[in-house]
Amino acid sequence: MKTPPSRRMVIEAVVASTVGTTIEWYDFFLYGTAAALVFPRLYFPPDLDPVVATLLSFGTFSIGFLARPLGGVIFGYMGDRVGRKSMLVTTLLLMGVSTLAIGFLPGYERIGIVAPILLTLLRFLQGLGVGGEWGGAVLLALEYSHAGKRGFYASWPQAGVPLGLLASNGAMWLCQAALAPDDFESWGWRIPFYFSGLLIAVGFLIRMRIQETPLFAAVQERNEIADAPVSDTLRYHWRDILLVAGTRITENASFYLFTVWVMWYATEVLHVGTEVLLQSVNLAAAIAFVTIPLFGFLSDRLTRRSVYMTGCLFFILFALPYYALLESRSTTGIVLATVVGVSLGHALLYSVQASLIPELFGTSIRCTGASIGYQLGGPLAGGVAPLIATGLVKLFPGHYWPLAGYIIVNSVISLGCVMLLAETSRKDLGAAESN
Question: 3-state secondary structure string, the chain?
Fold first, then answer.
């Protein structure tokens, strides 16, 4: 890279990355909220036990996580061979079309077993899209950033995730509030899925304006494009990939427990209205939009690993108080549990991942390495967390300590993995480097 990009170019890249990420995660989270509130009754046989229907619904939700590593491989390869920009446009369109199709999908009463099959297929396509999105989005911000500020700028696409969550929950909440319950269940829940089409068009136009990242352009100029980025990554960085997946377990599992699964837990176990949870999650997401860049900035001043380890220790200490606050069944307790868990605990971990993970890999394989390592953690964490938590409720009725224990075990695993990773905050990403 001959000259560093101007501040305006950096800001434009960060905005394009953040807006696109917000739209992609709006789509992904929208499915999760509907899986908790609507899909068990709409897309599965009406004579099923409610808990079984919920498990099946969360099973389709988990399919998206199983698809994410494959999306990471496919689009990570594309990002390292063709470029970050082309990859980002492709994933945005794939996610948008899949989400829009879910909005038009008939229920079980109309097309029978075909309904859950098509629902699962569309969720799989969503998973492919978001599996490729993350690597390209954070690299767009990271590879435009100046030294000493990479943690801060790269954290902004991560801040697009709570914005997407806020938008999806807000859309669902507005539809619930404006419509009668029967109208919402029959057709009202589809409106936020239709709205995705407009958002995708906006994101597409914004991303088309951005040029290729300076670091990848320099690799192209030096003719150092990797011939086989996937095999090179697996051959030389298999240890980093496994450790990255391990570091993500507590962050990813806790996030989906705190924002998606808790909707079912509140309704079926605590007998608390979902309105309280939706508003709590929305408030937590709004605050996280501020705390994620703040912790990204902190990782530049301190180190990536120290901030991440702090987040793991936080979850170990917070797991029992979180469920105790939910068990209070009070609005104050539920709001406090959700806000602290999402905007403090999760934000500490999630903010740092955008710089810590990609910085482990050389530019020629960075998109592949970051995408595979990051997405591999999804099926091991968020993909199974709702299923495991629902199973624990069934096995230990009336007790929340097994749920807290699940978070603690995850956090210990992630803490051990991040301690074994290299510190990357002072690494020179602009230097020519080997795999």
Answer: CCCCCCHHHHHHHHHHHHHHHHHHHHHHHHHHHHHHHCHHHHCCCCCCCHHHHHHHHHHHHHHHHHHHHHHHHHHHHHHHHCCHHHHHHHHHHHHHHHHHHHHHCCCHHHHCCHHHHHHHHHHHHHHHHHHHHHHHHHHHHHCCCCCCCHHHHHHHHHHHHHHHHHHHHHHHHHHHHHCCHHHHHHCHHHHHHHHHHHHHHHHHHHHHCCCCCHHHHHHHHCCCCCCCHHHHHHHHCHHHHHHHHHHHHHHHHHHHHHHHHHHHHHHHHHCCCHHHHHHHHHHHHHHHHHHHHHHHHHHHHCCHHHHHHHHHHHHHHHHHHHHHHHHCCCHHHHHHHHHHHHHHHHHHHHHHHHHHCHHHCCHHHHHHHHHHHHHHHHHHCCCCHHHHHHHHHHHCCCCCHHHHHHHHHHHHHHHHHHHHCCCCCCCCCCCCCCC
pLDDT at residue 61 is higher than 60 = yes
**Residue 2 reports pLDDT greater than 70:** no
- Tell me the per-residue pLDDT of 307-357, one tens digit each, with 9 for 90 and over: 999 999 999 999 999 999 999 999 899 999 999 999 999 999 999 999 999
| Residues 200 and 96 sit within 8 Å (Cβ to Cβ) | yes
Residue for token digits 């539809």? 175
C-alpha closest to that of 256 among 157, 386, 417: 386
Please report the pLDDT score of residue 408 as a whole number.
96
**Contacts (Cβ under 8 Å, ≥6 apart) of 380:** 245, 248, 249
pLDDT interval class at 156 (50, 70, 90): very high
Closest to 355 measured CA to CA, from 296, 308, 415: 296
- Residue 268 has a pLDDT of 81
CB 155 within 8 A of CB 292: yes
Residue 432 pLDDT class (50, 70, 90 cuts):
very low
Higher pLDDT, 197 or 374: 374
What is the set of domains in the chain, with CATH numbers? 7-420 (1.20.1250.20)
pLDDT at 430: 65
- C-alpha–C-alpha distance, residues 28 and 289, integer Å: 18
| pLDDT exceeds 90 at position 79 | no
Q: Indicate the residue type of 343.
A: S
